[in-house]
Amino acid sequence: MLILHKFKRKIGNWCLNHLFNSVTEDDIFIVKGKNVYLKGVQIEQQVIKDISSQARIITELELYKLLLDELKYNANVKIYKKSVTQDDLLFSKAMLHTVEIIENKLEAMKKF
Predict the structure, then answer these.
(1) How many beta carbons lie within 10 A of that of residue 79, not counting itself?
(2) Number of domains comprising the chain
(3) How far lies 40's CA from each of 26, 37, 43, 54, in Å?
(4) What is the pLDDT of residues 52-71, one digit of tens each?
């Protein structure tokens, strides 16, 4: 059974990375040098500073941490224990992918 779960995870990861046109970290808050672009429009430096400050606050909020932990936990439960079809697996992997993008973008924005 453990081998089946590992196989499902590998297939799911491969599918998300190679077959689907999913959103990546490179698609949101595009950083080029010291400039940041949102929906293709350059953001002013003061707005970048404000966003950076807000990113620091958000990542320290207990509610934010609890929500991410809950999403990760439930997605993993669905992947390893409750997935019946390949769609179940892919949807849960997509959820984990989205959470990872949010976490990574907030960490990156804190550095501005």
Answers:
(1) 21
(2) 1
(3) 12, 5, 9, 21
(4) 999 999 999 999 999 999 99
